[in-house]
Amino acid sequence: MTNHTDAETELRTRDAERISDELVGLDSGTSPFVAAVRATRMAMVITNPRQDDNPIVFANDSFCALTGYDRAEVLGRNCRFLQGPDADPTTVEEIRRAVHGARPLRVDILNRKKDGSRFWNRLFLAPVPDADGELAYFFASLVDVTEEQERLAALAQDNAVLAAQLTAKAHLERERDRELALAMQAGGMGAWSVDVRTRSLTDTEGYRLLMGWAIDEPMSYEDRQSLIHPDDREAVKAQSQATISEGADYSINHRIVTPDGETRWMAARGVLIEDATGAPLRIAGVTTDITQQVRSERMRSALIELSDALRDLEDPDDISFTAAEILGKTLEVSRAGYGLVDRTAETITIARDWNAPGINSLAGVLNFRNFGSYIEDLKSGQTVLITDARTDPRTADAGAALEGISARAVMNMPLTEQGGLVALLYLNHRNARAWPDDEMAFIRDVAERTRAATERRRAERDLALLAASLEQKVEERTSALMEAESALRQSQKMEAVGQLTGGIAHDFNNLLTGITGSLDMIGKRLAEGRISETDRFITAAQGAARRAAALTHRLLAFSRRQTLEPKPTDIRKLVAGMEELIVRTMGPSVRVESVHGTGIWPTFVDPGQLENALLNLCINARDAMPDGGVLTVESANRWLDRRAAAERDLEPGQYVSLCVSDTGVGMPAEVIARAFEPFYTTKPIGQGTGLGLSMIYGFAKQSGGQVRIYSEPGEGTMVCIYLPRHLGEVENAADEPAHVETPRAEDGQTVLVIDDEPTVRMLAAEVLAELGYTVIEAEDGKSGLAVLNTNRSVDLLVTDVGLPGGMNGRQVADAARIARPGLKILFITGYAENAVLSHGHLDPGMQIMTKPFATDELGRRVKIILDEG
């Protein structure tokens, strides 16, 4: 503690009172500086460290406006009241140490206003000594930098005007120069004045500090000009000339290069001061360091440019070079590049680098040891920052070599994989330069984005190669699988054909045995003259033939090739007409129930085949209930959406369902899976052909519908036939005529019979001849057309559909009608060939008849066709 005499103590007390009076406005002789402090838009406070807890003794209006506090709420309090719980403890400690050590400080801290809202405060703190050099006050200015870019422009303009005004009055207030310098330093600004006649410079310590000049060394006008970046000197000179000659405000942003080689951005603002006659005297102004602002904006723009480039580039080498170019131009260095490192050989291989104008490329292989010992730092994963190769201990001995490659300043950022050094991102500058933290953060961001992009491109390229290889393998595997699948299908087809052939052979051999045996017995009885005993053998042969015809119909139904005669059908009436037959068939131990919905839609179906299918289902249900049970026949309207239709292998739409359910033994899944196979049956030998369900399946599919089985062992079975709705009315069926004798021909009626089977042709001709028709026979389509192309009268063509020689029955009929448009035609066929319905329907005057047929039925159909029209 310094000892003072009473006189000195009294002097210090009066001095403190005078300063206090000035600050609170009691001194009528308040200086222009104090007035400026009160009036400035920069928030300012003064604290008194001589009082307990260093309280605020002055706060200007701008401070109150910024924080929302009245002056009365502020005075006497320590500045800590602005700090909230979210203030950085490190920053708070930094402020505490600066106050304790009476040191100037510039720091950003998160503060709170009176209303609780947060704002970032850029605090400029400066100690103010009294006349004896003892600490008297702390002078602090506050800047809201939450929206730094907008507020910085306004702040710079206000400070420029304030500084210009203060400079213009400097010759009147020399005693205030030191206080002015301290205020400017606290605001992060430097004041200067240039005499336009002598080109002499007057500046403050703060200005020299901004320019990187030693504070205790004077700076001349020429010194200042030498610090201006060579590329900006002409622009600065032009601005000065415009201010002197035209009186324009001095306003320019330019770069400087400090004596240490650091490039900084400055914003200089000033005004022209004239004498009484209007002649220019000096330009007075202030300069603010805007390096951080400019760098931030340039780096932000560079990252946007990099993102665009990374999106468009495909080659990893192009990506690396583009990133280096963006880094070099943004940071204004001499060189930027990327190289692969051989850790063992301690070399770097550079394929391509970016170089500023006048700088040579380093492409090739370089040995790290030729340029210093910093390879050891790189191996340990540390980023190497060398501000000046001449003074850095790692490069002092190799400084000349580095300067020889324009790398006096070096930044080497190692890139590692699995903990090992593999590559290097490097920046070089031909002059000494610092590597600020914000630049390093920017470089790391670029490095990480670039490495991610290059690795992604390499991975995509490798993936594409892998995909091509996999695609080839998939094609090869698919081809092999298709061949195997084709072989499997062929095997399954042959197995099914074998099963089908075996079943058909078994049933037909039984039927043929009955037919041939009966014919043999008839022949023997006729030879013995025992004609009366032939009737029962004739009846047996006819019965076997009818069963054979029924078997073929079932086979055709399964294959969906039977000849159907569909018509609008009311299923509910059809079931009602069969109820008595179903009840008799079920027997007394089975109760029959019918359940039908209201308003059942009509369907377009062959009613005889539907009756046959329904009866088959009822018989199967009876056989599944050997001890009796309940059989239910139900019909309902069904509107199937896409999901429900897909489950039933149908197209979405409206359907009518006819279901038969029982309370019998049920069916396991493996039986359901094979239930529709021909000749597959679970019944004992002799109790079923195995064609019932397959016939129903084929009939439903041929009618545009589907059949499904729902069953579980012990829970009974339900089989449902789904048939499409018919959008039309059901015609009332006329009473079927009673059996009458086969009608005979009228005089002169001629029938042409074409069939490649001699027996069928002979039988048809014989039947028709007995009925009085003139019959012409032909064995194929060609010979039949030869008859039709003559003048011979033909009233009816009876032709088989399946004819040899390349011309089927439908083609013969179409050709015949060209010469004879009104010719009537009866097709006879073993199955409904597509050729018959090649136009989707039978033309007028055409009918179809299915083999085998009764002779009487042939005669009736011929008479019906000839009588039409």
Helix content: 40-55%
- Counting copies of identical and different chains, the oligomeric state is single chain
**Gap from first CA to last CA:** 142 Å
- By CATH, the architecture of the domain at 559-724 is named 2-Layer Sandwich
> Helix count, per DSSP?
25
What is the name of the CATH class of the domain at 559-724? Alpha Beta
Please provide the count of β strands: 29
CATH H-level homologous superfamily name of the domain at 559-724: Histidine kinase-like ATPase, C-terminal domain
What does the model show?
This protein is α+β, with helices and mostly antiparallel strands and 869 residues long. Among the domains are: 6-146, Beta-Lactamase; 168-289, PAS domain (Beta-Lactamase, 2-Layer Sandwich); 559-724, Heat Shock Protein 90 (2-Layer Sandwich); 750-867, 3-Layer(aba) Sandwich (Rossmann fold). Helices cover 43% and strands 22% of the residues. A hairpin with a 4-residue loop joins strand 11 and strand 12. Helix 16 packs across helix 21. The longest helix is centred in the middle third of the chain and has 91 residues, at 437-527. The protein is elongated, with a radius of gyration of 56 Å. Residues 557-561, 685-690 and 734-739 have low confidence and may be disordered. Its EC number is 2.7.13.3. Residues 456-487 form a coiled coil. It catalyses: ATP + protein L-histidine = ADP + protein N-phospho-L-histidine.
